[in-house]
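Quick review question:
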């Protein structure tokens, strides 16, 4: 119903970005720039997007500096390690894939997001 006014998106597509309570603070549906954009506050959304991107760049620069420092000191540097996924080689295709390693649902049940980075 009314699909022509919704760009002919399916019901699923229209609801994918709906907010949900009790999710990790890193859930992309919580992006402040996205919320502003969806409210039609385009100028504020653009400023917020620029702030988030600069925050991401700063984290990347810090990690790169830490890697260089570790290399200079002859130490190993692990870099970023995802919280709930790990990279593995698919036994059939030989491709690198991300496999859920657990922890998200337990954290959600407890509402313990202390291991989540501050990305927004």
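Suggested answer, residue by residue:
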């Amino acid at each position: 119903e009314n699909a022509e006014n919704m760009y002919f998106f399916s019901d699923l597509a229209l609801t994918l970005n709906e907010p949900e309570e009790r999710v990790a603070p890193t859930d992309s549906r919580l992006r402040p720039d996205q919320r502003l954009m969806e409210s039609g506050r385009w100028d504020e959304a653009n400023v917020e997007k620029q702030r988030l991107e600069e925050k991401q760049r700063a984290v990347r620069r810090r990690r790169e500096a830490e890697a260089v420092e570790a290399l200079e000191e002859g130490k190993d540097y692990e870099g970023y390690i995802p919280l709930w996924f790990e990279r593995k080689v698919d036994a059939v295709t030989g491709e690198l894939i991300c496999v859920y390693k657990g922890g998200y649902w337990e954290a959600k049940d407890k509402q313990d997001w202390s291991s989540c980075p501050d990305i927004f």
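Why it works: The first strand starts at residue 85 and ends at 89. The chain has a mean pLDDT of 92.
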